[in-house]
């Protein structure tokens, strides 16, 4: 059994990643299957349930987009801080993982149009003495954020006198604010609200939302693609427009949120 | 952390070749290619801004790594003493406990131990509050210190035990016949000889700890590896990893050469 | 009894995910072992030739892979080697090859294992008396026959304790591959810990599983050790 699983794992590793096309030919490739990279640790956008299955808004949107593009989609999970390198290394073809379209990232990869846009926010323990979301309020405090996210960048820019701790996934900073290791956390308002409304978030409350500096946050969340992959980009943009028009987007949105996540 | 030791080469070779063979040429060629490739990559992507931004953080990260390793090595050394004594004790309970301690920390991955301490203990904040230890487990750095110290204590206990047992019985008997007390024999006769034997394994243990300590980056400690990951995730520039590799190699090689020197000096009375 | 449900099999428990993690961990370690052994042996041969270039190259290899943190080696392989493969296939027009986290782990751990194993083999070579080579040549055995029939059997016996230690390290180092996304024991436990918010239970479980694996390994290594020494015991 072990020998077989070794072989399966190895061939899965190789074959899944040998699409027999060098990168230039991405441009005119006929896409019948698209491999999508996601994180699987960012509820309610993408997460794994107890049966190891991927769930969430990003995942449902991805499936809807693939249906609209009439392609087969497979999902690959990848830790956040390796997301862009793994795309460039051809471990998958597209990132659908709540990745903001920032100028810094656009130097590395291409993005489609946005498929949602929500502001950042800060949460603190219920008994916290932090009164507001200004630079002074958070001076000298420890703020948790996920490593190499726009929120970690923004935390450093907005709160220069605070100590920013960076965690591999959102789940770890939640554990640490609950146990009192950090004084505040900064993330997407939807992610924080979802957590605060669950039993796990009983420790904490939402302090307030913050303005999304376009220098850091860019123009919303989009699908990440390898540079020069214009055909796939066009397909995704068309598909985003299609599901916005035919109501699929709204159906999915309503399963998760009671407000408009697409933003202005 | 392993027990594999660094062995120096000297004995006569059983297989002999005279001229550079094909294998040697290919192998050396591969290294040359990698070196040229890396050099070309770094020159091609040369970015003075990167150096300006990250040179200081890298050195600070190096400081954190060295500080963490040295403190846990010292704490581990203190902890290893009772464990080593327990391992050599005639009391079955002490021997059993010491064995379980050693087996537990050597038989499981350090990364899992660190996760258990950092995230697992965080779950029991109220308990640690009650016993007044939460200030310690609150900090990622002290959690890393705690796990690394316990881990290295298990390895150091085995080094210490091996070294003490390597001193021949005759040394104890000789000491006794001179009318010396057991404590004096241990301190003045056995321990100095054991330390010569233990020098190299101890140095190896420090090297292994420097390497293993890279794991603490995952629990938010900004050591050398933590800074490297941060720099890479912002710049996507592979040379951030090359710098880290060079820094790690430099410390490890410096330590190895220092150990060789120290060993030569300490054993000069044994050279005939 | 809540923890029993969490560790159970089926859609509500994490038992099946963690069990798959055990298979992945064991597969990775077992797949790396032969590669590491073969390369370690070849390196040991390279280190004792008089071919200076070959010896130097082998020494560079050991210095690098023994000196770098395993985690860094892993990242370098996963990001750097993949990157280099990409540029290579783009330059040559050959099909793309990218290493999955499993194969990256195999390569990186193989580098580390072979670097340490070469030193174990080297010292084992030195423990074999010259007389063995002289005796074989007096019997008219070729150099190849000497190696296979005379040297190798003794070498394995002498090197076994050292290799056993390396196997234990390999088994533990597989846990590091979880950081680049391999769904091994540690990563599955980590995911479970995140979702259920029971880190102590799941990391504790992971540690117990690793203990069982190392315990089984030491029993197996002990068995092999007795088997290789069966000739001596008969005396």
From TrEMBL, chain A:
GO cellular component: membrane; outer membrane-bounded periplasmic space
Annotated GO MF terms: ligand-gated monoatomic ion channel activity
Pfam families: SBP_bac_3
Domain Solute-binding protein family 3/N-terminal as annotated: residue spans: 33-260
Subcellular location: Periplasm
PROSITE patterns: SBP_BACTERIAL_3
Span of the signal peptide: 1-22
Keywords: Periplasm, Signal, Transport
Domain of life: Bacteria
InterPro entries: Iontro_rcpt_C, Lys_Arg_Orn-bd, SBP_3_CS, Solute-binding_3/MltF_N
Membrane-spanning ranges: none
The keyword Transport belongs to this UniProt entry's keyword annotation: yes
Location (main, coarse): periplasm
Ranges of residues in domain Ionotropic glutamate receptor C-terminal: 33-259
Keyword Transport: yes
Family label: Belongs to the bacterial solute-binding protein 3 family.
NCBIfam families in the cross-refs: 3A0103s03R (TIGR01096)
Name of the protein in question: Amino acid ABC transporter substrate-binding protein, PAAT family
TrEMBL record, chain B:
One MF term in the entry's GO annotations: transmembrane transporter activity
Any single Gene Ontology cellular-component annotation: ATP-binding cassette (ABC) transporter complex
Keywords annotated in UniProt: Cell inner membrane, Cell membrane, Membrane, Transmembrane, Transmembrane helix, Transport
One GO biological process term: amino acid transport
Ranges where the ABC transmembrane type-1 domain occurs: 62-259
UniProt superkingdom: Bacteria
Compartments where located: Cell inner membrane; Cell membrane
Keyword Transferase: no
Recorded topology in the membrane: Multi-pass membrane protein
Classification via InterPro entries: AA_ABC_transptr_permease_3TM, ArtM/GltK/GlnP/TcyL/YhdX-like, MetI-like, MetI-like_sf
Coiled-coil region list: none
Similarity annotation: Belongs to the binding-protein-dependent transport system permease family. HisMQ subfamily.
NCBIfam families cross-referenced by the UniProt entry: HEQRo_perm_3TM
This protein's name: Amino acid ABC transporter membrane protein 2, PAAT family
Source organism (scientific name): Fulvimarina manganoxydans
From TrEMBL, chain C:
Claim: Amino-acid biosynthesis is one of the keywords in the record: no
Membrane topology: Multi-pass membrane protein
Subcellular location: Cell inner membrane; Cell membrane
TM region(s), chain numbering: 20-46, 58-81, 101-125, 200-224
CC annotations in GO: ATP-binding cassette (ABC) transporter complex
InterPro entries found in the cross-reference section: AA_ABC_transptr_permease_3TM, ABC_transp_permease_HisMQ, MetI-like, MetI-like_sf
Listed GO MF terms: transmembrane transporter activity
Keywords of this entry: Cell inner membrane, Cell membrane, Membrane, Transmembrane, Transmembrane helix, Transport
Record-linked PROSITE patterns: ABC_TM1 (PS50928)
Residue ranges of domain ABC transmembrane type-1 in the record: 22-221
CDD domains: TM_PBP2 (cd06261)
Record family assignment: Belongs to the binding-protein-dependent transport system permease family. HisMQ subfamily.
Protein name: Amino acid ABC transporter membrane protein 1, PAAT family
Organism: Fulvimarina manganoxydans
